[in-house]
Amino acid sequence: MTKELLNFGIVGIGGRPKAFLDAFRITGRARLAAVCDLREEAMAESMKDLPDVRRYTDYEEMLEHEDLDAVIIGTPMPLHVPQTLAALEKNIHVFSEVTAAVSVDECRQLVAACKRSKAQYMMGENCNYLRPCMVVRNMVREGLLGEVFYAEGEYNHDCRKLITETPWRKKWLYDIGGITYGTHSLGPILSWFANDRVASVCCAGSGRNMTDLDGNPLQRDNSYIMLCKTEKNRLIKIKNNLSSPRPYGLNYLLEGSKGVFQSVTERDEIWLDGISEAEKWDELAKHEERFVPDLWREHADENDRSGHAGADVITMIDYINTLYDGRKVSIDVHAALDMTLPGLISQQSVLEGGKWLSVPDSRDW
Q: What is the pTM of this model?
């Protein structure tokens, strides 16, 4: 890029902008030029320390009147694709929160828009940037776990309070069966299963006996399990529970011919054949030193203040530097849809009694 600073806009600024603002400051390569949110009070609260940043309640107006290099889309899921298309049409780079789309048709629209545009699209799956997930990815690449063949991802998060705070979630997270919010689980796994994708899925629920916080029955099964077979014949199990009372849990398991990694409630453990003691797990930290990515080494003193164990700010730092240096983003449209499409197809599998269904490859569109 030839500009001294990249001009960013954020739509949905009333949500969680802190990590983005920290990344602008840390890199010194970007500035927040404009923000947009329908909720003027929430926008005012988020921007109280930045009075000079221009504010909009109309997204199209912000795109039209501002000289933006990139826009961060932090709005509800059903707005991600329409707002992405509007930006790409103007050749403005897009960083979209998860998930990429809410239907297969939207996925097709997204691919077509990316092909037409001169700008880059990235889905901001911050779990791919979690320190242990990136460390394990490097270990897999170096062969420490041998041939990896099986993985599990669990997203357990009682989101019922959010139905009141953010009503859009009721339809998109609670009124649709299947793995509607699965990229946090699937994203890191696909980064470990390099050059592979989910080819087919089946999905089933555990039955319904949960209510919302007002006592109304939920139209979603308590838990869903999605099994995935990849093109390279690996097996993945994804579990999604959004309604039972419990502490938040983002858990992973990875099995290979030479070792196993597991992360349960932020306890990261590994066992390596010929290295670890028999029948005894090691802390991941014992073996991680040479596998810590440069992003985490360079910003170790700064990233512990942001959400998702520091991954939010690391994700945005990488995105800014990628655009500034003119490189290809790490999670492009096809990588984003590799994470998103299995969950969308799982919804149909639930309706068909858990039938195995093929997952389209967006690269063929």
A: 0.95
- The continuous run of DSSP H or E covering 36 comes out as strand 30-36
Measure the CA dihedral 355/224/236/264, to 10°. -170
Rg (CA), the chain: 20
Distance of CA 68 to the CA centre of its chain: 24
d(CA 210, CA 231): 36
Distance CA 121, CA 95 (A): 6
CA nearest to 363, candidates 118, 95, 110: 110
Q: What sign results for the dihedral spanned by CA atoms 321, 324, 326, 328?
A: positive
Residue 99: is the preceding peptide bond cis (ω within 30°)? yes
Nearest Cα residue to 227 out of 128, 155, 146, 150: 150
**Each residue's pLDDT expressed in tens, for the chain with a length of 365 residues:** 445 899 999 999 876 666 788 899 999 999 999 999 998 888 988 888 888 999 999 999 999 999 999 999 999 999 999 999 999 999 999 999 999 999 999 999 999 999 999 999 999 999 999 999 999 999 999 999 999 999 999 999 999 998 888 889 999 989 999 999 999 999 999 999 999 999 999 999 999 999 999 999 998 999 999 999 999 999 999 999 999 999 999 999 999 999 999 999 889 999 999 999 999 999 999 999 999 999 999 987 665 556 667 899 999 999 999 999 999 999 999 999 999 999 999 999 999 999 999 999 999 99
Task: For residue 26, count other CB atoms closer than 10 A to its CB.
Answer: 18
Q: How far from 349 is each of 92, 172, 362, CA to CA, in Å? A: 36, 17, 19
Strands 70-73, 6-11: pairing is parallel
Q: Quote the CA–CA distance of 312 and 18 in Å, as a whole number.
A: 9
